[in-house]
Amino acid sequence: MNGLIHIYCGDGKGKTTAALGLALRACGSGYKVILAQFLKSWNTSELNILDKVENVLILRSKKPGKFTWQLNDEEKAALKIENNRIFEKAIEVISCDKKILIIFDELIGAIEKNLIDKEAVVDFLKTKPLHAEVVLTGRNPDGELLGLADYISEIKKIRHPFDSGVKAREGIEY
Ligand code: ATP
Ligand code: MG
User: Fold this and answer.
1) Which H helix or E strand runs over 48?
2) Structure pTM?
3) CA atoms within 13 A on the CB side of 40
4) What's the rounded mean pLDDT across residues 154-168?
5) Relative to the alpha carbon of 9, which ligand is closest?
6) Do 51 and 60 contact (CB within 8 A), yes or no?
7) β pairing state of 5-9 and 56-62
8) Nearest CA to ligand 1 atom 29
9) Strand 5-9 with 151-154, pairing
10) Strands 56-62 and 133-137, how do they pair?
11) Edge-to-edge strand ranges of the sheet holding 100-105
């Protein structure tokens, strides 16, 4: 079965959780799952479970404990190198497994902020091994990324409690 490319985008809550839901389904069907997460500076609760699941490999770039707009040029350059390394590592693993799902969580945000080499990503998407199923998440994919996707699912915010002052809640948002 040929693998396809998914994008979960938009300003509503649920992009990462949708990707994790697909990971659960694929894993249940015998897929190996690679979850490569970008721009996350703290652990999210799903890792407590996924760490224990055979056939799931988690790769994370460590973001300094600051917002990306607070990083100086040197910190940005270092983060870009780290993100490129995580990306390369993820695609290295793909080669042999027949059933593989690879989730690049918030890769779209990393591209938008120039914190990863976009060309390498586009090149991979254009030439990826046929069998690999790929998911990208992030709010605002550009036209080039959208053009490469087979599924594009936009999650649109109708309402979010953050806007009325409710802070992120453990187990729900992280
Ligand atoms: P989730 O991880 O809950 O599925 P997401 O992947 O769609 O959310 P991101 O853009 O990755 O959302 O946002 C990172 C964090 O901000 C998450 O904790 C998410 O729940 C929360 N969030 C998502 N959308 C909004 C929004 N419109 N306003 C405020 N917080 C949001
Ligand atoms: Mg997310």
Assistant:
1) helix 46-50
2) 0.95
3) 24
4) 97
5) 1
6) no
7) unpaired
8) 162
9) parallel
10) unpaired
11) 56-62, 32-40, 100-105, 133-137, 5-9, 151-154
pLDDT tens-place string over residues 80-130? 999 999 999 999 988 766 899 999 999 999 999 999 999 999 999 999 999
Residue 39, judged by CB atoms within 10 A of its CB (0-12, 13-18, 19+), counts as buried
Question: b/e for 53-69, b at 16 or more Cβ within 10 A?
Answer: eeebbebbbebeeeebe
Atom of ligand 1 nearest to the CA of 162: 29
Q: Which atom of ligand 1 is nearest to the CA of 155?
A: 7
3-class DSSP state for residue 56? strand
pLDDT at position 134: 98
Q: Residue ranges of the domains in the chain?
A: 5-140
Ligand 1 midpoint to CA 173 (Å): 7
Fold for domain 5-140?
Answer: Rossmann fold (3.40.50)
Q: Which residues surround ligand 2, an ion (CB under 5 A)?
A: 15-16
